[in-house]
Every structure is written in structure tokens, then in C-alpha cells.
């Protein structure tokens, strides 16, 4: 039960922070520096705007993929083993999917342009990446302890 509480609070907390940050940028917040710009962008595709040509179909494809991944996470026991990490990933995914239904696209706002141009991303993207990295670290530690 404790693990479901961790998952639930992570999911709700990260989703609310993500949406709050996106609202801030939609309200006009903008900050520029030499290497990083915090400015509003709408991404109608996925990473690097790929698949933007799918239009409205993309949100339904993403829902199907997230549903499939959720089923896998539950079946494989990942929700029990990694409640925080799965909560981070789920909150990020839900935040970006929510944007697709309620806004012009996914609200992105962090633009790295120091030395090279990088894709514009958002807090939800960072939380998804963080969740994946945490799972990888935990799995590597688990595998290492099994070898000992």
C-alpha cells in the first residue's frame, strides 16, 4: 500500500508542477541568456518535432502506447519495485498528453543553444528521463547484488 501512495503522490505532484510551469510560460514568461532560453514553444510532434505530420492522430497513438507501457509496468511488477520512478514517468507522459488535448501542442519552454541547437523541452520530459535513469540505476544495482 505504501508504494501505491508514493506512486500516487509522485504522479499528482509532478503533474501539477508541470502544468503550473506550462501555465507560467503560456502567460508570457520569457527569459533569455547566452546558452539557455526559457520561452514558449508548442511542439505538435514528439522529440525533435518528429511525427508532427500525424496531426490529431498522434495523441491517440500516444495514449495507446502509454496504456501499453502501463500494462507492462503493472504486469512486470515495476510499479511495486519502482513506485517513484514509474510515478515520474507516468506524470510526465500524462502532462504531455494532457497538453495535446487542451493546448495547441505540447508546451515546451527550455531551449538550449550554447554551442549547438538542441530540441526545446519541458519539465515533463525531464521527469520522464529522470524516471528512466532511476530505473536503470536500480536495475544495475540489483543485477550487481545478485552476482555477489
Overview of this protein structure:
The chain is an alpha+beta fold. The protein has one domain. 63% of the residues lie in helices and 13% in strands. The protein has 5 helices and 4 strands. The protein has a 4-stranded antiparallel beta sheet with strand order 1-2-3-4. β3 and β4 form a beta hairpin. The longest helix is centred in the first third of the chain and has 25 residues, at 2-26. The radius of gyration is 17 Å and the shape is globular.
Number of strands: 4
Strand order of the largest sheet: 1-2-3-4
Given as residue ranges, the uncertain stretches (5+ residues, pLDDT < 50) are none
Measured by DSSP, the beta-strand proportion falls in: 5-15%
Total domains, how many?
1
Largest sheet: 4 strands, antiparallel
Query: What is the averaged pLDDT score?
Result: 92
Given helix and strand content, the structural type is alpha+beta
Shape: globular
Query: What helical percentage do the residues reach?
Result: 55-70%
Radius of gyration: 17 Å
Head-to-tail CA distance between termini = 30 Å
Number of helices in the DSSP assignment: 5
Order of helices and strands: HEEHHHEEH
Provide a quick synopsis of the model.
The protein is an alpha+beta fold. The protein has helices spanning 2-26, 57-75, 78-81, 83-102, 123-147; strands spanning 31-32, 36-43, 106-112, 120-121. The chain has one domain (2-147).
What structural keywords apply?
5 helices, 63% helix, alpha+beta, 4 strands, 148 residues
